[in-house]
Amino acid sequence: MATPARRPLADDIAAVLKAEMRDGVHPPGGRLPSEADLCRRFGVSRATVRSAIKELDVLGLVRTQHGVGTFVRRRPAVRDGLERMGSISESIRASGKVPGHEYARRTLRPVLPDEAERMGVPADTEALELRRRITADGEVVAYSYDLIPRGLLPSDYTLDEPNGSVFDYFERRMGVRATLGVARVHAVDSAHIAWGPDAGKHRLFILLDQLHYDTAHRLLAYSRTYFVEGAYEFSLVRTGD
Amino acid sequence: MATPARRPLADDIAAVLKAEMRDGVHPPGGRLPSEADLCRRFGVSRATVRSAIKELDVLGLVRTQHGVGTFVRRRPAVRDGLERMGSISESIRASGKVPGHEYARRTLRPVLPDEAERMGVPADTEALELRRRITADGEVVAYSYDLIPRGLLPSDYTLDEPNGSVFDYFERRMGVRATLGVARVHAVDSAHIAWGPDAGKHRLFILLDQLHYDTAHRLLAYSRTYFVEGAYEFSLVRTGD
DNA sequence: CAGTGGTCTAGACCACGAA
DNA sequence: TCGTGGTCTAGACCACTGT
User: Fold this and answer.
1) Which residue intervals define the domain HTH gntR-type in the entry (chains A, B) (predicted)?
2) What is the reported pTM?
3) Which among A29, A66, A236, B21 could disulfide-bond with B183, CB atoms 3.0 to 4.6 Å apart, if both were Cys?
């Protein structure tokens, strides 16, 4: 009875439903087929269908209403749990969109005094500065300014890397994994952050001013990421006793 | 076979495990009993135990490792950030300033349709709306708009309460404690949020759009708190694997 | 190999909302 | 009343990890 479980069946089903929502098969505000219908269509048990729907719910793509049905939400935004460390690309992919990275600058330069203080490194430390735009389905969702201490870079580093996700680059090229981030959150209203075709459109941002560490508490990067307000939805679970 | 399903069994089990982690029965870094053990102990099926564990995983309290076990996460030493639930008054006091509350409005009204959807309550639910400013040493740090379902209020409620911290009010007058918050974070640029003498000065805010729950997952309040950018420092520790 | 978590099934009962 | 989603069970096979 049980099927091979390499890739969760529920994820496949969720992906199909995501695609259908994006393509207008299930328009915003519309009702998804009932769970029983989906069981028959995909030939799986109800538990599996429910797992898929729960995934869409957690991602904020649908809303379930007891005794009524499951409905497509009107506001399909990219969402991320702020308290969870993870690559921006990942969270874009998780919401059913295709992430993109456009690099505008890769420069080696000494860090500025206030950067050195925030990073806790000597004032003349050299670092790689990255300036890039992050997109979801071609739409700009964030502008990011990153600093990576030169000492961490591969010895054969050349200025044409990285090209995509910086998180992926850390893992693939440098063999380190960012597992801890210490961030400050700000609201920013400025015409001097955005660049490119949308420069005039984007003025309001959520700034994540963040230090990244690996498991050994070694500083990997200092990043200032300006998320375009409205394009990226931040959620946050706060706990007490 | 099936049990009455008023309050999810999995939540109860998760609560027990949480309490045991807090009390040191399962110390940080330690291993939780296996799923099979927990099934026997609580007398439930494995699906239910797994649901409870998934809840702890989403909250970042445990980490599962295939073929090995489920482990209690080591909590970061810094716990003074956005991810921690607490009253605004408390954090103001913690920074050595004196918190103040100025109430501008207390009204009973039906919730609006989009509020009802966010809160997950019927469309015509009555709620107490609070509108207030929160100050630190007399300086305004936040404007807050809160909704409390009428059903939660004391039977002898009159419209001259609360007067200070809403968190304190919950505990003292209603005997409930907000221990879980689900928030969305936004940047807001608007001249229509602030009121009073500083209305013209404050345009840029960090909005915490937040649902508050007690330990039984009962909705206590829906609050939209606009923090004056620069007046309140938000930090945040983000963790991964 | 044994024990762990990861996934899936088939069927059941309950609670809710609308007709 | 009927169809919906919400919860739970008992059992199964798979994949991973350490011995």
Assistant:
1) 7-75
2) 0.75
3) A236
Distance of CA A17 to the CA centre of its chain: 21
Please name the member of A184, A188, A206 whose beta carbon is closest to the beta carbon of B235: A184
Q: Residue B180 burial (CB < 10 Å; 0-12/13-18/19+)?
A: middle
Give chain A's residues under pLDDT 50: 1-5, 76-77
Q: Is the C-beta of residue B25 closer than 7 Å to nucleic acid chain C? A: no
Tell me if A208 is assigned to some domain: yes
**C1' of nucleotide C4: residue with nearest CA:** B67
pLDDT higher than 60, residue B80: no
Q: Give dist(CA B33, CA B56) in Å, integer.
A: 14
Domains identified in chain B, total number: 2
Say how far A159 CA is from D16 C1', in Å: 40
Tokens of B199: 């209305």
Please indicate whether, in this complex, the C-beta atoms of B236 and A203 are within 8 angstroms of each other: no
Better-predicted residue by pLDDT, B82 or B164: B164
Q: Which domain-ending residue is among A37, A72, A107?
A: A72
- Same domain? For B40 and B104 the reply is no
Nearest alpha carbon to residue A209 among A191, A227, A228, A231: A227
Question: Using a CB-CB distance cutoff of 8 angstroms, which residues of chain B are in contact with residue A83?
Answer: 60, 82-83, 236-239
Q: What is the mean pLDDT of residues B195-218?
A: 83
* Domain extent at residue A155: 78-235
